[in-house]
Design brief:
It is built from two helices and six strands, in the order E-E-H-E-E-H-E-E. With 108 residues, the chain is of the alpha+beta class. It has a domain of 69 residues: Alpha-Beta Plaits (2-Layer Sandwich), CATH 3.30.70.100. A six-stranded mixed sheet has the order 1-6-3-4-2-5, covered by helices on one side. The protein starts with a strand and ends with a strand.
């Protein structure tokens, strides 16, 4: 069972519009508020999706929304919050049967 914290209020007229990307951030990205900061920035960019830690020390996120806004967030993820040391960001555009629900969650 996964526990989800936060869903934030997002105002997107149609959730079916937009694109979806899976992003994996590798490096010293856990224990530095990466997920919390990524969520805040995603909400500011009016993106929906989720972010979670992986057991291998990476952070993975599913981002849905306008492509230009996703690219802005990915650019930020290349350096991350203070204290993070990002070694690699892997980005993959994915097709999903149903876009993520409105809001942006931290998944545990």
């Amino acid at each position: 069972m996964r526990h989800v914290r936060g869903n934030g209020g997002l105002h997107i007229t149609s959730q079916s519009q937009g694109v979806t990307y899976r992003v994996v951030i590798v490096g010293k990205v856990q224990g530095v508020s990466f997920r919390v900061t990524l969520r805040e920035k995603a909400l500011k960019h009016k993106l929906s999706g989720w972010v979670r830690n992986r057991e291998d020390g990476a952070v993975v996120a599913l981002l849905h929304g306008r492509e230009d806004r996703i690219h802005d967030l990915i650019k930020w993820a290349e350096s991350g919050p203070p204290g993070a040391t990002v070694k690699k960001v892997m980005v993959e555009r994915v097709k999903v049967a149903r876009p993520p629900e409105l809001g942006f969650a931290i998944v545990y």
